[in-house]
Write a structure and sequence with these properties.
11 helices, 2 strands, globular
């Protein structure tokens, strides 16, 4: 993330300098996503799912999501091009980039039918991205850190930098809740898969195509995210604890064993590392 403008510049120029960067557009995109998701949530809790404002808020939220991840993908492509390296190194490497995956899923949700649950993972990411940008760029631009001299230090001694208390509070929030929030995102994405599966079972229009696309996305997330792996393991352990109960019918135990066996087979047969070979590690979703 680019540093804030120099503190020697007037405030107006600092803000103009900040607003002219792609990173600021990325920040505005995440802020727009949060605002639209909140507006859609108001329509949802009042049962106005398909009102004009609800449809506008839902679609605009995913337009903002696609724009933010598009900016990240573009910046990565441009950085590789300037360095003279081959951008992404091939189709499989491109598909393994988490930002590309979220960009594609944002477009899928944008043009598909409304599924409110699909907004939640993007919202959680946006909360932390907005918080991080506010702490590292927006606050230092409006109120630059001040250089203070430690009492009793020599005149030529090293000066300390006094940061904004608000920035420190935001930093503590991000550090304290990041892991728990990423676990929440993983759980939401897995739950969303079951939501899409249910739509396919009742033969909702286009649901089988959506299930295939989203299953591919979840499989990629499982191979790349320790949080998704942990959420799956935790879910499997909970079901194991339920089916091992003596009151559970033998047929239910056999069915669960079959599901686990098929799941392991599907996971092994769709392991992209078997086909991609040694690829560069994908970047964290931004």
């Amino acid at each position: 993330m680019a540093p804030p403008p120099p503190a020697s510049m007037p405030l107006t120029q600092r803000l103009m300098h900040l607003a002219q960067t792609l990173q600021f557009g990325w920040f505005v995109g995440h802020l727009t996503l949060l605002f639209c998701a909140f507006r859609y949530g108001l329509s949802y809790i009042t049962f106005n799912f398909y009102s004009r404002w609800a449809r506008f808020s839902y679609r605009t939220a995913f337009v903002a999501a696609a724009a933010t991840y598009g900016i990240v993908v573009y910046k990565a492509y441009r950085a590789r091009a300037r360095a003279g390296s081959r951008p992404y190194g091939g189709g499989l490497a491109l598909a393994s980039d988490e930002n590309v995956q979220y960009l594609l899923m944002a477009l899928v949700w944008l043009f598909g039918r409304q599924i409110p649950l699909a907004l939640l993972p993007f919202m959680v990411y946006s909360v932390f991205h907005v918080a991080t940008y506010t702490r590292t760029n927006l606050i230092p631009t409006i109120s630059p850190p001040q250089q203070t001299v430690t009492p009793g230090a020599s005149p030529g001694g090293r000066q300390a930098t006094k940061t904004s208390p608000l920035a420190d509070t935001i930093g503590k929030f991000v550090k304290e809740y990041y892991d728990a929030s990423m676990t929440l995102v993983a759980s939401l994405e897995i739950f969303l898969w079951f939501r899409v599966l249910f739509s396919a079972i009742i033969f909702t229009k286009g649901s089988w195509i959506l299930l295939a696309i989203y299953s591919t996305f979840v499989r990629a997330r499982y191979s790349q995210s320790s949080f998704v792996q942990g959420a799956v393991s935790q879910g499997v352990a909970r079901v194991d604890a339920l089916v091992t109960n003596q009151s559970t019918p033998p047929a239910a135990r056999q069915a669960w064993d079959t599901v686990k066996r098929l799941g392991r087979q599907a996971t092994d047969s769709t392991d992209i590392n078997r086909y991609a070979g040694a690829q560069q590690p994908s970047k964290k979703a931004q």
